[in-house]
Batch of 2 targets.
Target 1
Amino acid sequence: MANKTALVSLHQLSVGYALPAGRNVLFENLGLTLNAGELTCFMGPNGVGKSTLIRTLAGLQKALSGEVHYGAGPNQSPKGPLPHQVSVVLTDRIATVQMDVRELVSFGRYPYMGWGITLSKDDQQKVSEALEEVHIQHLADKKLYELSDGQQQMVMIARALAQDTPVILLDEPTAHLDLNNRVEVMNLLRRLARKLNKAILIATHELDLALQTADLIWLAGRGKTLVTGIPEDLVLSGVFDEVFQFKGYDLKTGKISHEAYRDKMISLQGDGHAYLWTRNALERNGFSVTSPGPSLPHIDVVEKDGHLRWIINQKTSFDTLQSLLTHFI
Ligand SMILES: Nc1ncnc2c1ncn2[C@@H]1O[C@H](COP(=O)(O)OP(=O)(O)OP(=O)(O)O)[C@@H](O)[C@H]1O
């Protein structure tokens, strides 16, 4: 297997707050890496320290002890990473509303602008490429106040891309977005990691999306350390259940656990999505669903001429699940 290239390495890193009343250590002795070409999702309960670690890795907050190395050699800057090494997208709303999108994305070029305040041809090209990469060229001349939350999020990601760093750190980039935009942002970040060989770390509460898109998970909440692994291994090991203590949700099946409060079994036969959603409707309404067996009410889900039908005991037929449920309830 090809060796991974570490773009960020944590060495015995402890993070938290040195307060007058004493130290509040959130994570201790972390020894992890962020690798080129990988999307890492950083998950854990509220208040566990995700934002604090992101800020520490971004050089916005001092580590309590230990070191972070960026790229090949040790970190050269005592204050944190250099601006051409790491870009960061935090949760703050954009305050400079009078600015337009292209101007804000241009801010990503500041590490390369020398003493001048004008963008070179190369800078302008990078800004245009960043806008294209996140598919917001059409918004380039819009004022920031004209944008939706999702569009603003895309603009902040474009700014980070224009900064052209091998590492991007993002704190809850999908907060306040609708499902389509959440999926789009996660897919975009995964694509960027692969295509541009970047190491991308996202602190997120999006359990479903993270499990489906992350190359690696950092999971906080078991002591002051992080459990790491690919999503599927962590789901099967039960460590997510241990950390989040899900109530009424079965992570292994990805389903809400329904209570079979009607004490009534129904046998069900069908295929694909129609079978799964029929089962969901029955279980959500308190029935136990089983495979075909004698002396149970039986439902066949059949598709004919592009239309679904539900047939009870080979006699009574329904053309919606709602009407089927009404029959049983
Ligand atoms: N400036 C600060 N000074 C002291 N303690 C702080 C400061 N900021 C955060 N904390 C504490 O550090 C802990 C971790 O906070 P942090 O915001 O990093 O958690 P988080 O995992 O990002 O939470 P969430 O998922 O709710 O965003 C919390 O207990 C918080 O009260």
Target 2
Amino acid sequence: MTATTHSFRELRLRGVSRSFGKAIALKELDLTLYAGEFVALLGPSGCGKSTALNCLAGLLPLTGGEIWKDEQRIDTLPPERRGFGMVFQSYALFPHLTIQRNVEFGLRMRGVRLVQRRSRAAEALRTVKLADHAHKRPAELSGGQQQRVAIARALAIEPDIILMDEPLSNLDASLRVELRTEIKRLHQSLGLSTLYVTHDQEEALSLADRVVILRDGRVEQSGPPATVYSRPASPYVAAFMGYRNLFTARATAAAGPGDTVSVHRDGYVFQATAVAGVQAGAEVTLAIRPDEVTVGEGGANQITLATEVVEFMGREIQVQGRMRDGQVLLLRTGSDVVPGDSVPVRLPRERLLAFGQVDG
Ligand SMILES: Nc1ncnc2c1ncn2[C@@H]1O[C@H](COP(=O)(O)OP(=O)(O)OP(=O)(O)O)[C@@H](O)[C@H]1O
């Protein structure tokens, strides 16, 4: 298949809400997808990701808000007229149909004639490198191959946008990584606009041009992978981005966004980087990733860690220890550390983030 010519500029969710009785799954969600973009909707279970995708696809009616594709309002259209291809966690293939017929299915529903159907399905199967399996039935393929069939089926209808809901979740670890690369390759070669739902930060960061983190049915942060990874906007996003060390301290002076802020905690004084403005005397949450904590003497933010648990991780080890005041700290290092050691470690100022305590 050749690179997509986009038939729209932007898809816009405006104040989209969805409730189930008293439970609010989406709260006035605003979200824009630009043509050609790969956007990952990321968040923990229950934050509203699937609801957002299903509202978009027309599988769930909205209880508030609107969805627009350029100047066309589409939340009032039936699913098949919205121009989306869908890929689900469960491959949702028909077991009694051949792979070829499964891929043709959406085209048949749209009244595409047999000859054209055949050639478009064959082309989609070539794109996902499954042309040789066209005559087989789903049960004869691996999980990863079945999901590629589902992707081919979505591609065959030549959608404006592909919606993917946790497409890799049913696969084992090695297949997951393999198909992730395949999805990235398809996006790079076809330039298809994609909205991809996942709870896996690594998947979101590796695939997407832009990551949107949802919290309780609202956008908590939206930005390029490198930004949400190194500059999370809140402790909630930080926790999701692998900042496994989160603990409180108190600011000794006010600081603006990006400034160095001095904080103290139980006899320790740390220099940290303020993510947003911090008031003097305010409680802050400090966040640092285990792989940013360094072992060794020297420099500011030096503490001694009483090590408790050491886990072998391949190139590195993960160490769990306690600070003098009992606070648990995780680090990753190539140094030789054993349980029961007293190890000097440093929390580099530029990687130790301080969040004002607005949302816990
Ligand atoms: N059919 C339903 N009836 C009642 N509540 C629902 C229904 N579907 C979703 N919810 C609720 O809406 C909220 C958002 O659910 P949703 O499935 O969108 O979350 P999610 O982020 O996709 O989570 P998961 O990854 O577990 O699917 C949750 O609190 C959920 O319990």
